[in-house]
Amino acid sequence: MKRVGGKSLVASALLGASLVQADPQSICATENICYSIAVPTSSASSNSGNIYFQLKAPTSYSWVALGTGSQMAGASIFVMYQDGNGNVTISPRLGTAHSQPQWDQSSTAAQLTLLAGSGVAGGIMTANVACANCESWNGGDMSLQGTSVPWIAAWRSGSSLATTNKGATISQHGGSDHTGFNIDLTTATISSDSNPFLTSRDTGGGGGSGSGSGSPAGGNGITLARGNPNAAAILAAHGVIGALVMAVLYPLGSLLMPLLGRWYVHGAWQVITFALMWAAFGLGVQSAKDRNMLFTQTHTILGTVVVAFFGIQPALGYIHHRQYVQTQSRGAVSYVHIWLGRILMLLGIINGGLGLRLVGERQELVIAYGVVAGVIFLCYVLAKVFTVIGAQKAQGRSYKEDRVPGNMRRPYQESRRHGGRYA
Ligand code: HEM
Ligand SMILES: *[C@@H]1O[C@H](CO)[C@@H](O)[C@H](O)[C@H]1NC(C)=O
């Protein structure tokens, strides 16, 4: 808080000298759809209270929306459309995955007030809005002092909805008619808690201050992620390949080792799975970039850690194999390979579930994923248990004997004949 206060003091001093106030931050998502956001210093310092934003777009759009969050799921969304009487309607909605956000009529809904200067004039719709409680909503929150706060935007061209009904049905935007941006809200502060959009400053009067003044790239404090027309396909591919790798292919590949006892089948299978895993990772990084959420969520962080550790598994497996061929027994590396693999598989499966939750997938799908992953992992565990017990019986050994240190020989032959079976 102190820092923000200090910063804005410096800012006021500097700007005061040139007789210009700090301005709202502006960004244009397209040539003519522009958004501005302003945070009064009083709200910033208490991290609650009014914030102001503006939506501006031609009447050729059926609706134009802004929202707080990184993606539709979990976002607080503000949709603007014509009210049919020369003004606009601003509708607070909650984002749920990839479906129409519904009007939020609950007590925690964003308290939006349409301000002076709003209306339809010269073919342009303008909504000047005050939000009394936008710092938190049902599904998320944001710091009014945040230096990288994610927002989303979307729009749909078409005819006027001409309604004052905040629950009006809106139709889906096109594949690239959405974007996201991160705003340094400390560069969007205004000194007074009042409508900042009446004194038109978006003509560039700020003289090089932080405000973007309608440039498509936004101001210094805003980074725009352009709508990627393939975003949905990339995310879907990431999800399908990732789930297949973690919940099906890795466990099956691990199962092949005790089941067939052929190291090269296991090795080849896992190497292919390994390649697919990196493909899923690349697609995931792109998806996170499209949503301005790279390494900001548990799913993206845990995923990166798991994939990085998986990165050393082929080498560990190979070292184990070479060593086994020579000594006919498992060494430290073998156990690291085996146990790291098991732990990573479990973490990977859990991370897949987190990913499904992150994008707001339906509960049934999350459960189905959990069940399939659980059953396959159980098969792996059971196959492991039975082959070990079976092999021990065949060798007339007791479980205890096998655990005696120094007698680390395993009953399958990994060596000379390149893939003998269990004895
Ligand atoms: C009828 C209403 C809506 C439907 C059916 C819908 C559906 C979808 C679908 C299917 C996608 C993924 C595919 C693609 O990229 O085209 C998507 C992405 C997106 N939509 Fe919507 N949408 C609606 C309204 C909105 C609104 C009002 C916003 C306001 C900000 C919005 C913001 C976004 C954003 C930022 C993305 C990309 C990030 C993400 O995947 O969540 N959408 N939407
Ligand atoms: C639109 O509504 C707002 C809020 O009631 C008002 O302040 C503004 O003057 C209206 N605009 C027009 C063009 O009537």
SSE arrangement:
Blueprint: H1 2-17, E1 25-28, E2 34-40, H2 41-46, E3 51-58, E4 61-68, E5 76-82, E6 88-94, E7 102-103, E8 112-114, E9 119-121, E10 124-131, E11 136-137, E12 140-141, E13 149-157, E14 178-183, E15 189-190, E16 222-225, H3 231-260, H4 263-290, H5 298-310, H6 313-327, H7 332-358, H8 363-394, H9 399-403
This protein binds protoporphyrin IX containing FE and 2-acetamido-2-deoxy-beta-D-glucopyranose.
Describe the protein:
Residues 35-158 form the DOMON domain. InterPro entries: Cellobiose_DH-like_cyt, Cyt_b561/ferric_Rdtase_TM, DOMON_domain. Keywords: Electron transport, Membrane, Signal, Transmembrane, Transmembrane helix, Transport. Residues 194-221, 400-423 are annotated as: Disordered. The chain folds into two domains: 20-225, Cellobiose dehydrogenase, cytochrome domain (Immunoglobulin-like, Sandwich), CATH 2.60.40; 231-417, Four Helix Bundle (Hemerythrin (Met), subunit A) (Up-down Bundle). The strands form three sheets. Strands 1, 2, 3, 8, 9, 10 and 15 form a seven-stranded mixed sheet that branches. The chain has helices at residues 2-17, 41-46, 231-260, 263-290, 298-310, 313-327, 332-358, 363-394, 399-403; strands at 25-28, 34-40, 51-58, 61-68, 76-82, 88-94, 102-103, 112-114, 119-121, 124-131, 136-137, 140-141, 149-157, 178-183, 189-190, 222-225. The chain has 423 residues and is of the alpha+beta class. β9 and β10 form a beta hairpin. It binds protoporphyrin IX containing FE and 2-acetamido-2-deoxy-beta-D-glucopyranose (NAG). Protoporphyrin IX containing FE is lined by residues 65, 67, 71-72, 77, 79, 98-101, 152-154, 170-173, 175, 178, 180, 231-232, 291.
